[in-house]
Amino acid sequence: MIAGFPEEGEDDLRETLDVYLHSLRHPQSTPQLNILAPLAGTPIYSQYKDRMVLEDLPSQVSYPGQSQSHADRELVRNYPAIFPSFYLLPTPGLDRPSLMELAEFLSMVRKKLRWLLVALWQRRSGILDVFRAWREHRMALHPDMDGGSLRHYYTLDTSRNEFVAFVRERMAEFGDAAVEVLVAYEETLAQSVSSAPARPEGPPVSGRILLTGIPVRVHGLHVIELD
């Protein structure tokens, strides 16, 4: 799904989020919300090329990494006709910083808190209100976070754990039986992960792997069984 059209209003965004959450209810579905990026030569670029805005957090279509060098930044700034997808379009009906963070937030919860978000949506059917309350809370916790640091934050377990704690604090407003059970589950899971014993370290292995060897999974290693 795409948000951030110049003519888009809040009602449009709420309907988009309803479609997103409806899709999220299906385990094999991986919905994505992207911010509209104007591509060179398209009608929307031609219409708004004089009103494009370059900010620290562009659309995910043009991922700049956690940070950009000054030279890269100047290249994008000096040649907007070549790099228009790093720019954003005017959205008078929507708060652009909030919209950009919403896309990062949804990416995090889809991967780490899918069922909690679905339960919150089914409880209130207004996930935009939940997000806005969360964003206000997040800004109080991390007031200096923006751009690349904000995008990086939503890749960390810190954002997951802080959102779960936020829902726990606002249970009277946001919660029901399903939300409460899922919050308890996520809290227990986070606690078990943080207290897990360290895996034993063995000597380096070279040469052929013996049939008596025991594989140990380390961070970043995925074991795949083939026929």
Description of the molecule:
By secondary structure, the protein is mostly helical. It is 51% helix and 2% strand.
Q: In which range does the helix fraction lie?
A: 40-55%
Radius of gyration: 21 Å
Number of distinct beta strands: 2
Percentage of residues in strands: under 5%
Query: How would you describe the shape?
Result: globular
List the strand order in the largest sheet: 1-2
User: What string, H for helix and E for strand, traces the elements in order?
Assistant: EHEHHHHHHHHH
Distance between the termini: 37 Å
Poorly predicted spans: none
Please name the defining characteristics of this protein.
single chain; 227 residues; mainly alpha; two-stranded parallel sheet; 10 helices
Question: Which helices and strands, and how do they pair?
Answer:
Blueprint: E1 2-3, H1 10-24, E2 34-35, H2 43-48, H3 70-78, H4 96-112, H5 114-124, H6 127-141, H7 147-153, H8 157-169, H9 171-174, H10 177-194
Parallel strand pairs: 1-2
Helix pairs in contact: 1-5, 4-5, 5-10, 8-10
